[in-house]
């Protein structure tokens, strides 16, 4: 009887695996500072499951190592091991198995490393490789910039103003490279939208197939954004990209476009035109 049940279990597992391979579901990775940080995100995981999105959770065990299930991952560095067993991937390999990376909290150190393209920690290496692989990276926008362990040790909840300004600068730089920021409580909703957009892009027809040039122009016109002020800053661009998707930015004559804002718009493929050029 036990043998029969074992065979039945194996057959069911094989059938389940074959079905999963036939219809690949989107999969994301949540990275948390420690094994208790995920407890406030139960509703996120319920929402992801309800939309057919799979997820894994990576628990950081300090700055340079982490746990993914039963596998321990360690950040690469001079004289340091990358994986402590033969089954654990290197941090730079981790994003290859996911459609996107979600980091509810990021600190000043990891934000600086990511902004400068430096490696050395699990978060910075995963962000780097995910962006290189054109995977989306979502980060909590309301992170205090201090690690959970630092907050406990120093008994403070926020950075002093000079470090906060530096943290905000690093976040702008990360956005220029493709990292997206959203309120931590809304990250799961953003994941659902990102996965839906990816699915639509993979199935939508090319420009010369079904839609006529007139229809395509109407769609672009619907996505236009007009700016009437005197200076387009990176902060304004960031807020606009959070609230809506647009493909063209129309500026009034004499409007100044800051270099960082220009780079962010170029990175997102947004066409910039002045009103008298239309």
Structural description of this entry:
Helix 2 (42-50) runs parallel beside helix 7 (187-203). Mean pLDDT is 80; it is low at 206-212 and 216-222. Strands 4-3-2-1-5-6-7 form a seven-stranded mixed β-sheet, sandwiched between helices. The protein has a three-stranded parallel β-sheet with strand order 8-10-12. The protein has a two-stranded parallel ribbon with strand order 9-11. Helix content is 43%, strand content 18%. It is built from ten helices and twelve strands. It is α/β, with parallel strands linked by helices. Helix 2 (42-50) links the parallel strand 1 and strand 2 (54-60).
List the helices and strands and how they pair.
Blueprint: H1 2-22, E1 27-32, H2 42-50, E2 54-60, E3 65-68, E4 71-74, E5 100-103, H3 108-115, H4 122-132, E6 136-140, H5 148-154, H6 161-177, E7 180-182, H7 187-203, H8 213-222, E8 224-227, E9 231-232, H9 234-243, E10 248-251, E11 256-257, H10 259-267, E12 271-274
Parallel strand pairs: 1-2, 1-5, 5-6, 6-7, 8-10, 9-11, 10-12
Antiparallel strand pairs: 2-3, 3-4
Helix pairs in contact: 2-7, 3-4, 3-6, 6-10, 9-10
- Report the uncertain regions: 206-212, 216-222
Strand adjacency order, main sheet: 4-3-2-1-5-6-7
Q: Tell me the helix content.
A: 40-55%
What's the oligomerization state? Answer: single chain
Describe the main β-sheet briefly: 7 strands, mixed
Can you give me a brief rundown of this structure?
This protein is of the alpha/beta class and 278 residues long. 43% of the residues lie in helices and 18% in strands. The protein folds into two domains: 2-199, Flavin prenyltransferase-like (Rossmann fold, 3-Layer(aba) Sandwich), CATH 3.40.50; 208-277, no CATH class.
């Amino acid at each position: 009887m036990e043998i029969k049940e074992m065979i039945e279990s194996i057959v069911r597992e094989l059938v389940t695996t074959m079905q999963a391979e036939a219809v690949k579901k989107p999969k994301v990775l949540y990275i948390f500072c420690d094994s208790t940080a995920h407890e406030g995100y139960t509703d996120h995981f319920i929402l992801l499951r309800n939309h057919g999105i799979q997820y894994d959770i990576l628990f950081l065990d300090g700055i340079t190592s982490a746990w993914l299930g039963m596998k321990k991952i360690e950040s690469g560095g001079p004289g340091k091991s990358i994986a402590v067993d033969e089954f654990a991937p290197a941090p730079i390999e981790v994003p290859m198995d996911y459609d996107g990376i979600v980091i509810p909290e990021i600190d000043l150190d990891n934000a600086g490393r990511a902004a400068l393209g430096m490696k050395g920690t699990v978060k910075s290496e995963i962000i780097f490789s995910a962006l290189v692989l054109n995977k989306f990276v979502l980060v909590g926008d309301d992170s205090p910039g201090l690690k959970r362990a630092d907050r406990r040790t120093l008994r403070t909840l926020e950075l002093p103003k000079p470090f906060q300004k530096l943290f905000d600068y690093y976040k702008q730089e990360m956005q220029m490279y493709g990292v997206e920021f959203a309120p931590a409580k809304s990250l799961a909703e953003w994941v659902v939208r990102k996965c839906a957009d990816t699915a639509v892009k993979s199935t939508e027809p090319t420009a010369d197939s079904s839609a006529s040039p007139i229809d395509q122009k109407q769609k672009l016109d619907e996505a236009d954004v007009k700016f009437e002020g005197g200076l387009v800053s990176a902060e304004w661009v960031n807020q606009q990209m959070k609230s809506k998707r647009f493909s063209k930015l129309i500026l009034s004559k004499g409007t100044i476009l800051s270099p960082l804002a220009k780079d962010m718009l170029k990175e997102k493929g947004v066409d910039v035109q002045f009103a008298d050029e239309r």
